[in-house]
Amino acid sequence: MSSTAGLFGTYGGRYVPETLVPALDELEAGWRDAQNDPAFHEELDALGRTFAGRPTPLTRAERFEPNKRLYLKREDLLHTGAHKLNNALGQAVLARRLGKRRIVAETGAGQHGVATATVCARFGFECVVYMGEEDIRRQRPNVERMHLLGAEVQPVELGTRTLKEATSEAIRDWITNVETTHYLIGSCVGPAPYPELVRELQAVIGREARAQFLEAEGRLPEVVIACVGGGSNAIGIFSAFVADPDVRLVGVEAAGAASLGTGRAAVLHGARSSVLADGDGQVTDAHSISAGLDYPGVGPEHAWLRDSGRADYVGATDEEALAAFRELTRLEGIIPALEPSHALARVRELDEEQVLLCLSGRGDKDLAEVLAH
Amino acid sequence: MKKLVIYLMSGHATPELAAAAVEGGADLVELGFPFSDPLADGPVIRRAAERALADGMRTRACLECLARTRELAPDTPLVPMTYAALLEAYGWDRFAAAAGGAGATSLIVADLPAGERPELRRVQLVAPTSTDERLRLAAEQTDGWLYLVTLTGTTGARNDLSPALAGLVERARAVTPVPLYAGFGISTPAHAHAAAQLADGVVVGSRAVEVAEGGPDALRAYVASLRQAIDAT
Ligand SMILES: Cc1ncc(COP(=O)(O)O)c(C=O)c1O
After folding, report:
1. A183, A217, A244: which is the final residue of a domain?
2. Which domains does chain B have, with CATH numbers?
3. The total number of structural domains that make up chain A
4. What integer pLDDT is reported at residue B225 of this predicted model?
């Protein structure tokens, strides 16, 4: 593996202990193989249709935003309730091709943990999910779902007790059990080839949404907007529009976890990206009401899209997200997850009229947190 | 003679501890520069890193610790062991120059595998999972000796010496004449003795960090017990 592979501009790379390098090489080779194998794509398409509920619909949100033509890409209607399943299914098929039958994953909101536990049940894999104690507290229903699905949920008591520490622990487990285990990372972060692999598995969101928007409006959207935690739902929907120069791309981060807005170039979890870190490279804490956005890092491709000016990144506060959550629920009959509520909060002030928004997940998991505020 | 390497976390007491380790028979001292998210480390070194950071052991303070250690242990090779994040923040070349200026004889970057940034001279690590091709690459690029990670896992004491070490030594010998030092999971004189039968040097980390909490005398005695076990080869 050369030192320039897996780079997005100067971001990305493979900053991992040597123990993992052969596994990443193997994953990369397996991934290239799968991409060139029509049977892989057919299997994924079939799983999407018959198991996951693809294609997901596009819904006009006229009462939420009467002054625009706002369309929601309904990943909340995907099986397990969020876009995370697209990636989990793809990586499960890949893991089976690689002969790995034990899966480790990290989770913040619990949506990726549930998606991973679901595909492990479906494929008969052993499943261990690392989750910070703070997130176990605030996303209780998802912990119970993982247990029912047969996954082992490993509480992480270190440091911030959130997604950052859960990710570190999942990687340490992978280092220890690398010969038998696939690390099913939940976003477009981590060492190469993960950021690219996760983008390609989430690109189905953008492919469908592009065709659906064209059908509904007879044109492309002027702006595509999505929330950004690690950045996988955003990169999935952006990927279909990156080559359309007239389509503006907007990512919305949690104001207290704005890795792109206030971060700096640093190394975290195997990649160089934009990270909330101090001048010594020590990673600092993120804060968000939304467990899925409460992460001090972001996928390296987003850092590159920011630097190149192709995408804009803005923030939304906890309060703004909560207000948007309530409004969408009352005006459209759709209870969104807190993560995409951050994107909803920024829609009204957009200059553009034709808007495509990735509604990445549903809000059942967040009810306790919302009712407490 | 087989080499004994002792790892210590940077801290206010570390220069005196390093001197005690040298008196006890350490041939080389690794100085941990703590990182907030150390993927290669088990619980003991992780906790030590957290404490060090809480104590203000940022890069500049670690370099001062290194310089002071150099004064107290003038003839012992000193090797900072850290993570890529610190070099990225400080500047890769600038970090290497500053470490050298403070008395470092080489560097170890736990999450910078062979092939990445080949221009940075450092001790390369190899693991039981490394292919022969990667062993060769690491040996070509390494600075003086090759660090053999004895097991697939993070740092930390284990009950037994890893059974993977013998095979790794054999594969490494087949591709390179550079000295091979074995580390990760080695904590008792018995482990050190057994590892020294196979490799050219032995690295002790987590257990040394724990013993060092008891002060220089405890560390000196512990290192002497390792030294004795290794020399009994
Ligand atoms: C519904 C939902 N949206 C978004 C995210 C954030 O992840 P990403 O930025 O990778 O899409 C999560 C993460 O848990 C989520 O559950």
Report:
1. A183
2. 3-231 (3.20.20.70)
3. 2
4. 98
Pick from B143, B61, B142: which is nearest to B102 by CA? B61
Assess whether the C-beta atom of A227 lies below 6 angstroms from ligand 1.
yes
How does pLDDT run across A171-188, given as a tens digit for each residue?
Answer: 999 999 999 999 999 999
| Euclidean distance between CA atoms A120 and B147, whole angstroms | 37
State the amino acid at position B24 in one-letter form.
G
**ipTM for the complex shown:** 0.96
DSSP-derived secondary structure for B35-101: -SS-TT--HHHHHHHHHHHHTT--HHHHHHHHHHHHHHSTTS-EEEEE-HHHHHHH-HHHHHHHHHH
* Residue B43, token pair as written in the block: 């619980």
Same domain, A78 and A101: no
A209 and A290 both lie in a single domain: yes
Best mutation site among A91, A111, A357 for ligand 1 pocket (most ligand atoms within 8 Å of CB): A111
Atom 16 of ligand 1: nearest residue by CA position: A111
- In this prediction, residues A243-262 reach a mean pLDDT of 98
A137 shares its domain with A283: no
Range of the domain at A113: 15-45+84-183
Domain with residue A274: its CATH number is: 3.40.50.1100
pLDDT of A4 strictly over 80? no
Q: Is A265 on the interface with B (CB under 8 A)?
A: yes
